[in-house]
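Need tokens for this chain, all 246 residues.
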Amino acid sequence: MNSLTSMNLTSDQYNGVTIDSSTIPNDMQVFEEEIIYLINHLEDTKLLWIKLSIVQSYIIPILTKYDFVFHHCNEKDITLVKKMTINPVIPTATNHTLGVGAVVIDKNKLLVIKDRIWQKYKLPGGHIDDSESISNALKREVYEETGIEVEFESVVSLGHFSPAQFGESNLYVVCRATALTKEINIIDKEEIIEASWMDIQEYLTCEDVHIYNKAIVRNALENCGFKIDTRTDLITRENVSYEIFF
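Here are the structure tokens for all 246 residues:
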């Protein structure tokens, strides 16, 4: 396959071919000629992919000239794809954000926060970062917002909201967690204006708490939720990190 171009190419399970952007020629005329050649000579190929770093964004007009379209991106890179056949199967691009919330109960006290956006009592939590596990995101967000160190217990609620931020869907995973420390010490003072241990019954009757958050806490009190299965033989794919809950 690489005899078609000076650039490195790899195949995938979707009958697609990905161009290694680190092997793109410095001469843009040569690059364009190689793109044209690939489009005309790649056999049995349904998709042609390329992932560009932000410093390579000047290449985008050449690619869109030949019907490459944006597929997904983040702060530092963007992936484009060209359909080489009619109606190929294209893996779904990122179309949702992930959030995690924490129900942390110590005796009859519930860990709560107020932030500068909502300014009502709610559960600590926030966005799950790229490649971050649910349990690690839970620990990080609770610590950043309250200074409390916690240990994951179980998943007790899953919410789906659409449209959410930027018109995407949002999945909100709420987990029970055990407090390993008790002293409040807000780390993220730019976002969080208050963190405290509140009596659970006061929280469930407080007018300054959304009905959805009350329902989550009631469910957490009544149900044990889904625990992490620690078996290591459930997923056979290599180089995949995962958490499975039953």
